[in-house]
Amino acid sequence: AGQQLGSFVVLSGGNHSSLGEQVDPSEPPPTPDFCRGYFDVMGQWDPPFNCSSGEFIFCCGTCGFRFCCKFKKTRLDQSTCTNYETPLWMNTGKPPSRIDDPLHDPTRDKTNLIVYIICGVVAVMVLVGIFTKLGLEKAHRPQREHMS
């Protein structure tokens, strides 16, 4: 049944059993499941999908993380899940007002005024410092006599 190939043993003629799951030959093959769309634990919408890839035909996993599997006994009962609507914690309140919003009054916005005042004060202080330094240097220079 097995052949030695280098350090590996190659087996042939597997029985394709499905880990103890009995298949009744008179029963029609199961139809692929449809995993419904849901909001995952991060609040991202995961769209719905069909489980129709080879043996992976059952919708399995948890309400917050779904995937396709091949064993019916691990199928997810999607009717018990409640994460089909936007989570409450994602509703953080009113979005910020837009510029074309009639409720937004740009005359009440004082952010730019504060920046202008601070920059003006700094500029005046720099100019006062420069002129003070020039005045002190001129005052400490020795006087020259004018020769005619």
TrEMBL record:
**Top-level division of the source organism's lineage:** Eukaryota
A single GO CC term for this protein reads: dendritic spine membrane
Its GO biological process terms? regulation of short-term neuronal synaptic plasticity
Q: Name one Pfam family in it.
A: Shisa_N
Q: Where is this chain's protein located in or outside the cell?
A: Cell projection, Dendritic spine membrane
Q: Does the keyword Transmembrane helix apply?
A: yes
Q: How does it sit in the membrane?
A: Single-pass type I membrane protein
Arranged from A to Z, the UniProt key words for this protein are: Cell membrane, Cell projection, Glycoprotein, Membrane, Postsynaptic cell membrane, Signal, Synapse, Transmembrane, Transmembrane helix
Q: Tell me where the transmembrane regions lie.
A: 113-136
Which InterPro entries does its entry note? Shisa, Shisa_N
* Domain Shisa N-terminal residue range list: 33-83
The similarity annotation says: Belongs to the shisa family. SHISA9 subfamily.
Its function?
Answer: Regulator of short-term neuronal synaptic plasticity in the dentate gyrus. Associates with AMPA receptors (ionotropic glutamate receptors) in synaptic spines and promotes AMPA receptor desensitization at excitatory synapses.
- Protein's UniProt name: Protein shisa-9
Instruction: Give the originating organism.
Output: Phoenicopterus ruber ruber
